Amino acid sequence: MKNMKAIIALIILGGGLMLFGSATYQVKETNQAIILEFGEWKNTVKDAGIHFKIPLIQDVIYFDRRVRLLDMPEIIVITSDQKRMIVDAFTEFRIDDPLKVYQAVRNELGAENRLSIITNSNLRKVFGVQELQKSLSGERGELIQSIRDAVKQEATDLGIEIVDLRIKRTDLPEENSKPIFDSMIADRNQVARETRARGNEEALRITSKAERDRTVILAEATRDSEKLRGEGDAVAAKTYADAFNKDAEFYAFYRSMEAYKQSMKNGDTSMVLSPDSEFFRYFGSMDGKQ
Hints:
The protein is of the alpha+beta class and 290 residues long. Among the domains are: 2-64, no CATH class; 68-172, 2-Layer Sandwich (Tetrahydropterin Synthase, Chain A), CATH 3.30.479; 259-284, no CATH class. The protein is built from eight helices and nine strands. The strands form three sheets. Strands 6, 7, 8 and 9 form a four-stranded antiparallel sheet that branches. Helix 3 (108-127) packs antiparallel against helix 5. The mean pLDDT is 83.
């Protein structure tokens, strides 16, 4: 009899625990839940703790409320100049409205798949209207912001909040890299040749102007020096003339002495001249008389 009472008590206790377990559910700090009653939405629960529900009538579906990382596979996009480019991106998101997510894609895996499709679509759309050079350059912040805004707008309708979207890498497919790089190198070489040609032209212009200025300066200097030399010669001639007119005899004597000095400056005292030459007039007497 006692055993029967114990068994009944255990059955009642087990049934109570089962009833309590089916009538309660726990929402963790990292989760949120929606309550369905006969398949229809009844309530959304975001507060952590133990909550009650109607057994066999209400169901609980949990969703993660933490920030999740969606690392998407590389995709190939076609730019506006018909070049192929590899884009590798990732998205950080969290489920903001679990009801919208449930109604649109049912669960978290469906949310990731739909978000991946949305992101890839906007990557192709934005990069598809840009030229390859701009897409690969460091100045592409506006492009990324455009992609981020477009993905945010579509994700909001799914109940998903986009925390961040970044592009890890943009590159050329291996088969396209060499011709593209060769073309870019050829363009840079062309720019270098044009710049070098303009530099040579400018150097030639500066050199020609310097030569012209030099010729003008030398011509003016020669003209001024000839003018000064002529003025000096005139002053010297006038001085000589004045000196000659003042004492002609002394001037003649002085000029003869200079001539003797010049003719004997190398130590050569031999001259072949007529003894009565005018050159020897002062050899015979101091007054120059023959």
